[in-house]
Amino acid sequence: MPESATDELNVGVLMFIPYRAMEQRVFDALAAAGYADITVAQARLVQRLGPDGTRLTLLAEQAQVTKQTAGFLVDQLERAGYVERVPDPADGRARLVRLTERGEAVTALANRTVAAVEAEWREVLGERTMNQLRRALTKLREHTDPFR
């Protein structure tokens, strides 16, 4: 934390604060639409699901949680009807976790909310600055995200 009003917050905190605000807006929208049973931990796992599904071990690795934790979260999401486990066509012994119709509906709502927040940010920052921000963060992702 800054020691005085003239000290600056570090860049990580400056990125986290708007992310957390966006995340809260998404959860508020989900709750208002009747999806109040989704936790932050579950949502962060769902964010890592590929369009055709993802193996549990890869989900755990990408979410930086143990395989047991990922399995527990997937069990919860499966009971709530958001995901299902299906055979992996590339390996009959393996299973993929993929969204169900209910999971796709909640994801679509979350994505619409994110788009609305980004539109607000674009108004606040202006087109040019928002585009610069996106380019800068994309470049940082290339440097920091091994799962890009």
Automatic annotation (TrEMBL):
Q: Is Calcium one of the keywords UniProt gives this record? A: no
Where in the numbering of this chain does the HTH marR-type domain appear?
A: 8-142
Q: Which UniProt keywords apply?
A: DNA-binding, Transcription, Transcription regulation
- Xref: PANTHER family: MARR FAMILY REGULATORY PROTEIN (PTHR33164:SF99), TRANSCRIPTIONAL REGULATOR, MARR FAMILY (PTHR33164)
Species of provenance: Nocardia bhagyanarayanae
Q: What is this protein called?
A: DNA-binding MarR family transcriptional regulator
* One Gene Ontology biological process: response to stress
Keyword Manganese listed = no
Named from the GO MF annotations, one term is: DNA-binding transcription factor activity
SMART domains under this entry? HTH_MARR (SM00347)
Q: Which residues form the signal peptide?
A: none
